Amino acid sequence: MPVATSPIVYWPLLLAGAYLLGSVPFAQVLARLRGVDLRAVGSGNVGAGNLTKAVGAGWGLAAGVLDGLKGLVPVWLCLRGGLGPGAAGLVGLAAVIGHNWSIFMKGRSGRGLATAFGLIVALHPPLAIWTTGWAMAGWKIGGGMAGFIGWGLLPIVSIAMGAQATESMLILLLASVLIGRRMQGNPGDLMDSGSMMRRAVYDKDLVTNGSGESADDPLTQ
């Protein structure tokens, strides 16, 4: 009997492995090394942004790099192993989903931006120019709006940059996952349609301060 050697045979295992790798909450692990539980400080978000605010920029940068590798390495290995861009990209998407909804954190965790960036670098490097540009634009127009425009238009940009149809469909799924996670917000956030749309576009909530007045509460990455 012939032995199946096609890498697609192992694709379900690759998806599961990528999800588990993505689920490793590096930001929380690093925070714990400093005696901090990210769920109990700042926004409560288990990600590099909250880690930076709680512990310091160096620790946040380290978490961002590690999170990026969670998206880059699985996709790169799959492409090198013979999988097509669609199948390899879905493995990377599994890592992003694992990062956003970690089995080890019993639910939502990070926001997936660094992991998604790693996926893009491995799958279609020119697109990294677009995402980096909008990240820099966030300093001028606000990170929330820049992220919504940048990630929302990314599928169209991928087509303009000559990405294959399977890659563009994968980018559409990726953008949907990222914006969907933004809409979900952090633990305790309001889940009405208005609040969810505000988070999707501006990455902010309206919260009430001690004086009873409304104030913007930016969500961390």
Summarize the structure.
64% of the residues lie in helices and 6% in strands.
Tell me what the structure shows:
The protein is mainly alpha-helical and 221 residues long. It has one domain. The protein has helices at 11-23, 26-33, 48-54, 57-80, 85-100, 113-123, 127-141, 143-160, 165-184, 193-202, and strands at 101-102, 107-108, 204-208, 214-218. It has a two-stranded antiparallel ribbon with strand order 1-2. A two-stranded antiparallel ribbon has the order 3-4. Strand 3 (204-208) and strand 4 form a beta hairpin. It is globular. The model is unreliable at 207-221 (pLDDT under 50).
Key features?
221 residues; mainly alpha; two-stranded antiparallel sheet; disordered C terminus
